[in-house]
Amino acid sequence: MYKHVIKLPDFENVRYGSRPCDCGINQSFFRKLLKLKDKAEQVEYMRTNKSTIVVQSKCCKKVPENPKFGEEGEPRIDPDAAVWRTLDAHCGDDYVAVEGCDRCPWCCCLPCLTKLNKLSSHIGLLQAKKTNEAIGSPAYIRYKKEREFAKVALAGVVDRLPGSDYDRNDGIMDDHFNLSGKLKVLDKLLTKNYNEKGKVLLFSHSTQSLDLIENWLKSRGSFEYLRMDGSTPPSRRQSLTDEFNNTDHIFLFLLSIKATGLGLNLTSANRVIMCTLNKYVRVTISSHLLIFSCSLSL
Predict the structure, then answer these.
(1) Distance of alpha carbon 51 from the chain centroid
(2) Can you name the residues that pair with 35 across neighbouring β-strands?
(3) Residue 118: pLDDT band with limits 50, 70, 90
(4) Is pLDDT at 233 greater than 80 in this prediction?
(5) Would you tell me how many other CB atoms lie within 10 Å of the CB of residue 240?
(6) pLDDT value at residue 57
(7) What whole-number distance in Å separates Cα of residue 112 and Cα of residue 118?
């Protein structure tokens, strides 16, 4: 699935945007480079003339063009470029929708990384989350965009997904182990900590990831846990913290990053599991201040 997604046209434009374009526009540069026999001369030539190289993002790969463009009924933009087509900068008038924006293709960089982050955690996170909001509302528009990408990314495996659909319908009977290698590791890690009489804090930036983990915990049925996320009322947060600190048999606390904004003293915990990228979490554990950070790389 990962290999399939990174070969989608908008992902490839981001991956290879800094490479010299191979359409022939750089022939003069490379012809002169190959005439130089000495390695030091080649390095010096590349250093002093690199500004003359035309990269793909400035030439043929600025927008994800459809290779079938020109045939009857085929649009200019590749239908598989779902991330590019659903960005607000490309959804205005017809000119913008065809020519792209000033930042193309780099405008797709963060959205593509977000999709890959979800995919590397759990395939089900690429399914669209249904909403009851009215048609035309921001939530409904976001749902339609997620579903459009799901149709492109999950077409070959949709029958294996929960509900066999492009919409996510979370359930405790979902076959999570076949959809997430990380859950297999998490299962082993929690079992080990449980056998060692540990108390675990599990952090996630995504509440969708917490939903999937919680459904898996319910299906497993062997770990007692609490949960706190951004939707938890402030009046409940301290009572949940006290319950976790003072109750020995509560083994696990599921937490979103947003839930820790006001600071939580979880002094009874002795294990921390991070399910997040590019975020910082500060937690007081046994009177020691620990700072955990994870960085994202492509």
Answers:
(1) 33
(2) none
(3) confident
(4) yes
(5) 18
(6) 92
(7) 10
119-157 pLDDT, tens digit each: 888 888 888 888 888 988 999 999 999 999 999 999 888
Sheet (strand 225-228) strand order: 225-228, 252-256, 200-204, 271-275
Distances (CA, A) of 267 to 55, 97, 255, 285: 53, 53, 15, 5
Instruction: Kindly report which listed range (71-85, 119-133, 180-194, 268-282) carries the lowest average pLDDT score.
Output: 268-282
- Which is nearest to 280 in space by CA: 210, 186, 205? 205
Residue 293 has pLDDT above 60, yes or no: no
Amino acid, res. 239 = S
**Quick one: how far is CA 196 from the chain centroid?**
33
pTM of the prediction? 0.74
Tell me the two tokens of residue 280. Answer: 């910082």
Task: Please give, one letter per residue, the 3-state secondary structure of the chain.
Answer: CHHHHCCCHHHHHHHCCCCECCCCCCHHHHHHHHHCCCHHHHHHHHHHHHHHCCEHHHCCCCCCECCCECECCCCCECCCCHHHHHCHHHCCCHHHHHHCCCCCCHHHHHHHHHHHHHHHHCHHHHCECCCCCCCCCHHHHHHHHHHHHHHHHCCCCHHHCHHHCCECCCCCCCCHHHCCHHHHHHHHHHHHHHHCCCCEEEEECCHHHHHHHHHHHHHHCCCCEEEECCCCCHHHHHHHHHHHHHCCCCCEEEEEHHHHCCCCECCCCCEEEEECCCCEEEEEECCEEEEEECCCCC
Where are the domains positioned within the chain?
176-293
Cα gap 112→5, rounded to integer Å: 9
The CATH code that applies to domain 176-293 is 3.40.50.300
